[in-house]
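Worked Example 4.2. Consider the chain below.
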Amino acid sequence: MKLKDFKLGATGRYPRGKADTSDEGELQMALAADHQNAIVRVQFGKPIAWLGLPAREARQLATLLNEKAEEIERRKQ
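Applying the procedure from the previous section yields the following structure tokens:
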């Protein structure tokens, strides 16, 4: 998939079924190290009330967040 073809936000799919009545389904998001503002930017493509992740995916997200935070810290030195 090319980056320009990547769409943020809802996909309309429920790959693990609906968690509850407030579940709006799968969400495509993006992470970036925003060096100008020295922040890790998480883009969801739409307003979200909550994010539910299976344990493996939660750990993967934590790893990615840490990697982007470290990238910002390295650049500040």
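Strands lie at 9-10, 27-28, 30-34, 39-43. The chain is about 30% helix and 20% strand. Compare this with Example 4.1 before moving on.
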